[in-house]
Design brief:
Elements: E1 2-7, H1 15-24, E2 27-31, H2 36-46, E3 52-54, E4 56-58, H3 68-77, E5 83-88, H4 99-113, E6 119-123, H5 128-137, E7 144-146, H6 152-160, E8 164-167, H7 169-172, H8 175-183, E9 189-191, E10 199-200, E11 203-204, H9 210-221, H10 225-246
Helix pairs in contact: 9-10
Length: 255
C-alpha cells in the first residue's frame, strides 16, 4: 500500500475528487489540517473514506489564529484521532517574528498529545533543533519530520532519537533534498506529497504522485519499486502498531 503521510486535502479546489482518487489507487492518505476548527469541519467529511485519516493541526505560521478557543478545541479533539499534524515551529524569516508565540503553542500541543502513542507530522523549518528538544522534553516519540531541510548534524540527532522523516517530490528534485534522503536509514523513511503546495507538470501534486518518490527511493536503495513500497509501509506500521495496541479507534483502521 502506498502512503501519503502529509497532504492538505482540505486546501484543494476539489478535495472529494482527490479523496476518491486515493481510494481507487489504494493510497492511505493522512489529511493534515492547519487549525483545530478546520479539523472539526473536515472530520465528518472523511469518515466515509476507508483510506483517509484526518489529522489535527496547529500550524506555526498561523499562530495569530491560535486563540484560546482554538487551543481548547485542539485539546478537546485529541480524543477523536491519533493523527496529529501539522504542528511545530517555523523560524524562517516568515515566522521568526512570532517564534516565542509558536513555542508556546507547540508546547501546548505536545502536552495535549503525550498521553499515549500518536502519529505526529511536524513542521520544523529553520527550527529543527528546537523541535527535537521539545519532543524530548514532552516525551513524544516516533514523530515524523515533514520535508526536513535542516543540517546534517541535526538529521543525525533526529535519527538517533528514533524519529522518522517524510520525503516528497520537491526533495527528490533538489540537490540538498537528495543528499538528505541518501543519509536517512531505510527504516526511517516515509512518503508524502504536501499537496497541494507543490506543482508537478503544471498542476498541484496529488497523493497518486507518491509513485514518483517511490521510484526515486527504489533507485537509491537499489531495490524494486514494489519492495520500496513495502519498506515504507513497514516503517509506517512501526509507528501505527503501538497506537493500535494502546487505543481502539475507527480512525486507526487501515482496512
Amino acid at each position: 500500500m502506498k502512503i501519503d503521510t502529509h497532504c492538505h486535502l482540505d486546501l484543494y479546489s476539489y478535495p472529494e475528487q482527490i479523496a476518491l482518487e486515493s481510494e481507487w489507487q489504494n493510497i492511505l492518505t493522512i489529511a493534515v489540517t492547519n487549525l483545530p476548527s478546520q479539523f472539526e469541519i473536515e472530520y465528518p467529511k472523511v469518515l466515509k473514506f476507508k483510506k483517509i485519516r484526518q489529522a489535527l493541526g496547529l500550524h506555526p505560521l498561523l499562530v495569530e489564529n491560535h486563540t484560546q478557543k482554538e487551543l481548547e478545541t485542539f485539546r478537546r479533539l485529541t480524543v477523536k484521532t491519533s493523527y496529529i499534524g501539522e504542528i511545530g515551529l517555523d523560524f524562517s524569516p516568515e515566522g521568526m517574528k512570532t517564534s516565542q508565540e509558536q513555542i508556546d503553542s507547540f508546547r501546548f500541543a505536545l502536552s495535549s498529545i503525550n498521553d499515549r502513542p500518536r502519529f505526529v507530522s511536524l513542521h520544523s523549518r529553520k527550527a529543527e533543533e528546537r523541535v527535537l528538544e521539545l519532543l524530548e522534553a514532552y516525551k513524544v516519540s516516533n514523530a515524523v519530520f515533514h520535508w526536513f531541510s535542516g543540517s546534517i548534524s541535526v538529521l543525525d540527532q533526529i535519527i538517533k532519537a528514533g524519529h522518522y522523516l517524510s520525503i516528497n517530490p520537491a526533495m527528490i528534485g533538489s540537490n540538498k533534498g537528495r543528499k538528505i534522503i541518501e543519509l536517512i536509514p531505510m527504516n526511517r523513511v516515509l512518503t508524502e506529497t504536501d499537496g497541494p503546495h507543490l506543482n508537478i507538470r503544471a498542476r498541484p501534486v496529488k497523493p497518486i504522485d507518491i509513485g514518483l518518490v517511490l521510484d526515486y527511493l527504489a533507485m537509491v536503495w537499489n531495490i524494486s519499486k514494489d519492495n520500496a513500497e513495502r519498506q515504507v509501509y513497514g516503517n509506517f506500521k512501526q509507528i501505527i502498531d503501538p497506537i493500535r495496541r494502546s487505543f481502539t479507534d475507527k480512525s486507526l483502521s487501515l482496512n
